[in-house]
Amino acid sequence: MRVAHPGAYYAELHGWNERTLLARIEQAVQDGELTGGTDAAALTGLVQSVVHGLSVQAGLGADREDLLVTAHLAHELIRKCLPSATA
């Protein structure tokens, strides 16, 4: 049985997550859930950065409530910068 190196596993997982999120954001643009001018790649990078930052903070022992406050703020800022197509 061959076991993948942890670094390779995490790189593969990160790539899969990024591709999946990018596809979902592109679909949201096509479906009119996000405006046509939305930069799907940039939004994917932003969301990935927030998630990774929260993961690092959690690993360092950050309080759950603090993580939730940060996540909610990121969500609000993204919503304000990317109005929905129906707004």
TrEMBL record:
Superkingdom assignment: Bacteria
InterPro entries: Tet_transcr_reg_TetR-rel_C_sf
Cross-referenced Gene3D superfamilies: Tetracycline Repressor, domain 2 (1.10.357.10)
Protein name, UniProt field: Uncharacterized protein
Organism: Streptomyces morookaense (Streptoverticillium morookaense)
